[in-house]
Amino acid sequence: MTASIASPERLRVGVIGFGWMGRVHARAYARLAQHYPTLAGAPELVAVADNASDDRLAAAAQAFGFRDVHADWRELVARDDIDVISVTGPNFIHRDVSVAVAEHGKHLWVEKPAGRNSAETRQIAAAVTAHGVQSAAGFNYRNAPAVERARQLIADGELGTIRQVRIRLLADYAAHPEGALTWRYQNEWSGSGVAGDLVSHGIDLARYVVGEVEQVFADTAIFIPTRPLPSGVATGHGSRGSGEHGPVENEDYLAVLLRFQDGARGVLESCRTAIGEQCNYGIEIHGDRGSLAWDFRRMGELQTSLGQGYENAFYRTEFVGVESGEFGHYQPAGAIAMSYDDLKVIEAGRLVRSILTGGPVGATIHDAVIAADLVDAMLESVETGTWTRTTG
Ligand SMILES: NC(=O)c1ccc[n+]([C@@H]2O[C@H](COP(=O)([O-])OP(=O)(O)OC[C@H]3O[C@@H](n4cnc5c(N)ncnc54)[C@H](O)[C@@H]3O)[C@@H](O)[C@H]2O)c1
Asked: Is the separation of the CB atoms in 132 and 2 below 8 Å?
């Protein structure tokens, strides 16, 4: 089966999994025409699927305006009045749902990590290619205008030859020892711990700004080895368990040395149990002529040290504005804050442009394959205690 439409009046949307990301995707589609009034194909929210036993489907219809709701995602995928589907359930449904989406000729927006490992992610990519649909992967940090500016500065040679790259993804969402043993901590359901959850974001950010990584040497740790079994619906990160404990199967912490194709060296550190750290995500890059640094928590700022001598050079703060990335679609001037949700509107817009043009715009399932290959290589490196090349 091939894509159901080439250049539709309105793209008809389905969303599968209506937790945090499902709502963020739904809002992104709904806001797209407001930020990009000349973009064709303004999305229309048609149907949502979720198997939770609470009232979230009713809320989806009432607050978001979805026409229909389904308890079984297969019913949604089989509809012939849907053009594009967001896969925003937990990791363990991504492969089966995404492959079915492509097989039914629908365009795909899948959250990271797309598959639980490289093999699953490649199955999704193969289905997307075989059925001629477009794809987007949820690597939202590359969409930040300051990240686009960083990428441009490097491409323009402003930093010279890149030598060092430091990436950090530190979080506290798993810091509480009584946090429930949800699917995130069990490999059968999640695939991996911070590797798929956060490190995949860091890989995409580094690749997008600096270039490809070809070798890795990694270390991991589980700091909280058991957690209480969940009581009731365990959604989002904050669920508390009670009573009996079960084993945490995947890494709370991952540190990795990186060798980039162009010779740069990198270090990436990620942790989900780091007390005091909320979304401490960022990248620092040093070249032989200058440096830059970006912190997600100050998303609209770029720290640059450019055009000075070798020693005693200082950083300055640039407030990125309408000249960077897609900033001008959100705010009229620099230092007026954009939001996390805005990055998802940008992602939705890039997917719609890829559907309208028939070619990739933004991060696709093929970027997710590269990230998954690198995650697998890191976990293999931990096992073997050696430098590991990616399979790509
Ligand atoms: N890009 C990002 O920055 C980002 C941020 C958070 C989460 N994520 C990813 O998004 C995905 C979802 O994360 P979340 O935080 O929204 O989780 P969540 O727990 O808030 O939501 C998941 C939803 O999927 C539903 N669900 C579970 N099994 C289902 C099934 N078989 N059929 C239909 N619905 C089902 C649950 O009921 C829940 O509503 C994960 O893969 C996660 O890694 C990405």
From this structure: yes
183-215 confidence digits (pLDDT tens): 999 999 999 999 999 999 999 999 999 999 999
Q: Which domain holds residue 232?
A: 145-337+370-384
pLDDT tens-digit map of 110-127: 999 999 999 999 999 999
pLDDT at residue 337 above 80? yes
Radius of gyration, alpha carbons of the chain? 21
DSSP per-residue letters across 266-277? EEEEEES--TT-
H/E stretch holding 317 reads strand 316-319
Cβ(173) – ligand 1 distance below 6 Å: no
- CB contact set of 294 (below 8 Å; sequence gap of 6+): 144, 146, 147, 150, 282, 283, 284, 301, 302, 303
Distance 289 CA to ligand 1 centre (A): 42
Instruction: Please check whether residues 132 and 239 belong to one and the same domain.
Output: no
Q: Are residues 100 and 159 in the same domain?
A: no
DSSP 240: B
In a domain, 342, yes or no: no
DSSP 3-state percent helix, strand, coil across the chain (nearest 5)? 35, 25, 40
Please write the tens of the pLDDT for every residue from 44-67: 999 999 999 999 999 999 999 999
Tell how far the Cα of 94 is from the centroid of ligand 1, in angstroms.
9
CATH code for the domain in which residue 112 is found? 3.40.50.720
Decide: 281 in ligand 1 pocket, CB within 6 A.
Answer: no
DSSP 337: P
Is the C-beta atom of 239 inside 6 A of ligand 1?
no
The secondary element (H helix, E strand) that includes residue 171 is none
